Amino acid sequence: MDLSERFEWQGRQIAWGSVGQGPAVVFCHGTPWSSLLWQPFAEASSGDFTVYVWDMPGYGQSSKRPEDAVDFGSQTSAFAALLEHWRLDRPHVIAHDFGGAVSLRAHLIHGVPYRSLMLVDVVAIPPSGSPFFQFVQENPDLLGQLPAYIHAAIVRAHIQGASHRGLREDDLDALVAPWTGADGQPAFYRQIADYDERFLAENERRLGEIDLPVRVLWGSEDTWIPAALAHKLTDLIPGATLRLISDSGHLMQYDAPIPLTDEIRSWLGRN
To answer: Which residue, of 54, 117, 213, 249, has the greatest Cβ tally within 10 A?
Structure first.
């Protein structure tokens, strides 16, 4: 799927693409991912829907300027501005990882209306963050200066650990690529350094205000965000439903693409 479009927001270039016809569906990625995760699923839905994918500032093909904040608050503001730019009327939103926190915050804090919300292995409520995240937050500048080959090995190991079944080499290469080079390496550590759970705590306090269809999907073998948090999140959202996907880790898009495709098709069809 082509991300040839650019939206300029506060001096940043946000890469995005759209295809299809019908009601709008917006896919949101998390960290350290990009819209690449969602593109096959967006294309599969494009026969009945107009699908939108985008790379958050600091990710994928979007700009990675060192002076730009990439925390939850900044990403939420970018998302709200992008939705306004697209002039969408209550889109369906499907989010993964901290795309969940961003989409929830856009709805709860910015008042952006959705038709429905699907949350897939999301960062949404505390606690979150691994020991690796904590180490990076304490040493972001130091790690940004690592030799490129050591940095690449760290990123590969980090990303590979998100999959329960294991990633193919070509898929792993594609996921690692945006975080290499003069712009990518410091951007990788910067997005972790800007990670702030205060935004998640604010989201959690307001989840009871949600009044729209919400579906929660979670990999039963997610070691990044254990399934116990999925149950807690679902209980906090009025009317939300949960399904655990067996033999899937944090990267359901690669571990269980068929069940995920079926869930997306069924969910959009019902709503």
So the answer is: 54
